[in-house]
Amino acid sequence: MRGTTREEIFPLPEKGIDTAPFWEACNRHELVVQQCADCGALRHPPTPVCPDCRSYEVDWADVPGTGEIYTYTTTHYAASPAHEDHTPYNVSIVLLDGTEDIRLITQVVDIDPESVEIGMPVEVVWEDVNEDTTVPLFRPS
Amino acid sequence: MPWNSDACIVGLGETEYVKQGEMTDRSEFELACEAIENAAGDAGVDIEDVDGFSSYANDRNKGSLVADALGIPEVKFSNKVWGGGGCGGSAAVMNAAMAVESGAAEYVVAYRALCQGQFGRRGQTQGIDYAEGTDAFAHSLGLETPPQMYALPAQRYMHEYDVPQEHLGHVALTSRAHANRNPRAVMSDREMTMEEYMDSPPITDPYKLYDCCLESDGACAVLVTSAENAADLPQPAVEITSAAQGGGPGWGSGVLSSHNMPLEDYPTSNAARVADRLFESAGLTPDDIDVAQLYENFTGMVLMTAEDYGFAPRGEAGELFVDGNAIGPDADLPINTSGGNLSEAYIHGFNLVVEAARQVRGTSPTQVDDVEYSLVASGPGVTPHSGLILSPA
């Protein structure tokens, strides 16, 4: 079946024990990155233990919600019948401001996918998929 | 540390390779059994003497069940390598060699059967409603399939080093030209020009259709035993001269979901550390290699793998492939000499291990003269990546 809404095209994020605080912040339209409560190192995607100091104590740091395109792809083929009316679409890796090297997988919207470029400044824009789920997309800033 | 084993590959087994969906009379599980029996038969070893089963990630055909189906009287070693897709193909052979060397088992088979026509095609999503854990950060944001996942480092690589699209195309042309010399290759009868490559449909930038591996049905296997046993068997023994597996920090899920590997590592195949150990433990350098099989799930990764293995400086691996430089037995470094994943068949790259061994035996469809060292690099971009250097025993 062809999809028209995000829910029909892509799987929704399941909130796990390690990842729920990220997705719950998204529901509040806040972008957060997991932070070690002991040494302060940022890490993403979320994991239960700090790879720098092995602490299991976790905080969540607010980040500005801006960044730049580190790399991207424009997807032209439909990976399932649900994708057929959605192509071409962008998938990007955004290097987040306020971090040294944290990257978020996202989609850049409000621009022709063919016009996306590495280095382009972008800002978060929230898509409320349903009452339980919001995902962070980005647009040119 | 030197690689402390003289275990050998003594048997090569394959089924026919066909386009995904064309294998309708036999199950994937049956093909696994058939390839393993063929490897034992090729080696002149009674199938009941096979006592170890070694595989790697994404294998549906459990060694324990294959052993039962084949009537193996006693299993002494059973092992599967972690990591995604074809990254652990060489590691499965490495583990087989370590099992033999330790005395844990005597005849260990490493294998892969893949019938994408009977299960999900890897370029297609499976229609799931929710993505869990780390995968949620990828799948829910549109990054769902391997061509997309491997397009991202390729795009960054091409940006950083100003690599033209044609360099990817020459990787595809190299595999195709070798498939045209290989009657067993799925693409044996189909030639390809650069114009056809450039005109092939875009899949996910920078990848076009011909940058992507085939989707195939088939199976293959190799049988590993001690050098002492190998000396009494009919086939020329292929020594596992060096083997290595692993990867750097942050590459656990690597390009398959995290994309948070160290920035300086990002436009690479995560193979450099493994390559260094592979050469060091054999006392060899890249210049010693006579022929190489470099896993091509997607063309861009072949360029990065070639650089991680030291065959070219960063950003310059395309020069290995342009102008037919890697095509044919007389090339400086012939690469992917059976047609590989792109044009022979996509059996999660295990057919590359078989081809690397054939080059040592002298039975490749693009046979290189007097091969002393034959290298195979398994799948890129995740941990563990793995590689082997093979040579005449």
UniProtKB/TrEMBL annotation, chain A:
Where does the ChsH2 rubredoxin-like zinc ribbon domain lie? Answer: 23-55
- Tell me which domain of life the UniProt entry assigns to the organism this sequence originates from: Archaea
Pfam families named among the record's database cross-references: OB_ChsH2_C, zf-ChsH2
Q: Where would I find the ChsH2 C-terminal OB-fold domain in this sequence?
A: 60-127
PANTHER family listed in its UniProt record: BLR3430 PROTEIN
- Protein's UniProt name: Putative small subunit of thiolase DitF
What are the leading ranks of the lineage?
Archaea, Methanobacteriati, Methanobacteriota, Stenosarchaea group, Halobacteria
UniProtKB/TrEMBL annotation, chain B:
Please report the stretch or stretches of sequence annotated as the Thiolase N-terminal domain: 9-226
Q: Answer whether the UniProt record assigns the keyword Ribosomal protein to this protein.
A: no
The species this protein belongs to is Halococcus morrhuae DSM 1307
Q: Where is the Thiolase C-terminal domain?
A: 263-383
UniProt keyword terms in alphabetical order: Isoprene biosynthesis
UniProt-listed PANTHER family: ACETYL-COA C-ACETYLTRANSFERASE, NON-SPECIFIC LIPID-TRANSFER PROTEIN-LIKE 2
Which InterPro entries does this one have? Thiolase, Thiolase-like, Thiolase_C_2, Thiolase_N
State the Gene Ontology BP annotations: isoprenoid biosynthetic process
Which Gene Ontology MF annotations are present? Answer: acyltransferase activity, transferring groups other than amino-acyl groups
Which Pfam families does UniProt cross-reference here?
Thiolase_C_1, Thiolase_N
Name recorded for this polypeptide: Acetyl-CoA acetyltransferase
Answer yes or no on keyword Aminoacyl-tRNA synthetase: no
